[in-house]
Structure formats: C-alpha cells, structure tokens
Write a structure and sequence with these properties.
By secondary structure, this protein is of the alpha/beta class. It has one domain: Alpha/Beta hydrolase fold, catalytic domain (Rossmann fold, 3-Layer(aba) Sandwich). It is about 30% helix and about 15% strand. It has nine helices and eight strands. This is Esterase. InterPro entries: AB_hydrolase_1, AB_hydrolase_fold. One of its GO terms (molecular function) is catalytic activity.
Amino acid sequence: MDILLIGGLWLDASAWDLVVPELEALGHRPVPVALPGQGDGDTSATLADQAAAVVAAVDAAAGRPLVVGHSAASTLAWLAADARPEAVAGVVLVGGFPWDDGRPYADLFEITDGVMPFPGWEPFDGPDIADLDAATREAVAAAAVPVPEGVARGVVRLTDERRFDVPVTVVCPEFTPAQARAWIDAGDVPELARAKHLDLVDLDSGHWPMFSAPAALARLLAALSA
C-alpha cells in the first residue's frame, strides 16, 4: 500500500528518512510529501498550496493510500480526506488532531519577516521531547524550516461531510488514548467527535517519533494499513 507521510510544522520531507526504509522492509511504498514552503524556499506558500500538494499525492498514489499527518499536519491529512473521501483508505494522525472549518491552521508562534521560525525546544519541554537526545535535538533544530505566514495563518476550509466516513486513527505518543478520548468527548476536537470509524492507539514516544522511534512507528503504520 502507498503510505503518504506529511510532516508537521518546520519539517521538510527528509523528516521521514528513518521511517521510509522501515516501511519498505515491511512491504509498503512510503511517500514523504514535499509541502510548498517547507523545504523549497517559497515563503509565499499558503495553506491552500500545501493542501493541494497532499491531494495531488493522493491522486498520484497506486490505489487508495493511507494518509499520515504528523502534529499540525493532522489537519492537512484531514483536508485530503475532505477533498478525496472516496480515494483515501484511511487517515492516521500522529500526535495531533484536525482543526474544524474556519480555524487558523497553526497561528501558534510569532511571525517574523513573513514566516514563523522554529521557536527552539523550550516551548516543548517535557513529555514532547523527553526521548530526543541532545544530538537529535540539535540536528532537528538545525534543519527546521520556517513556516510561511500564509500557511501558519491560513484558514481551514472543509466542505464534504463524507470525510466522516473515512476511517481515522489517532496515534497517541506524548499523550495517552484516554486523554485523547477525554478531549474528544469534551468537545475540543469536534471533527473527530463526528468520525464514524475512530481508533485511538498508544505509541511509547515523544511528539516526534519519526526521529526517536522510527521502527516502532513504521510497524504501527504497517499494522494500520492492514
């Protein structure tokens, strides 16, 4: 099966380099999605541009792909389900949740000169980064790509209620499935509250398992693809 891999904020497609060979060894075709504005130097890119890139990857896939979104890119994966509900086998959300219609995509940190730079590790101190050693933190920070303002402040637009028929799995790394369920039940994630086929699965890692637990993440994705 084709497994589309969408990195979260500040990550380019190389973020999946450790996961790709693991998935290939398990018999799948991983496809890291290159997002406009995250690796190509295009600071004018918008959320619509990134969503279009993900949809294009769905259209180019062999058969119905599994669409994996990490962190904020959980929303991008969900936008793909909204745009191509009949063409997506399922959506996997790694350490993140999809925003609902009308919400800004990721207006989380200060915008400087038209981009949202990586803020350093201090805002993520705790379970998010507990499993990242110093060398990995340094490497990830050095490779971090500032997110264009048009992406970070882009407004989420969802139009097709058939997205709720697409199977969704939330992979819970730095939080537990019980916590995720409580947030959904409390109304914090209205999109997932309406999903007809929702699973919550645990992964023993921090927020960036593609760096700290690539083999375990690949095994989980392979299992979900079945």
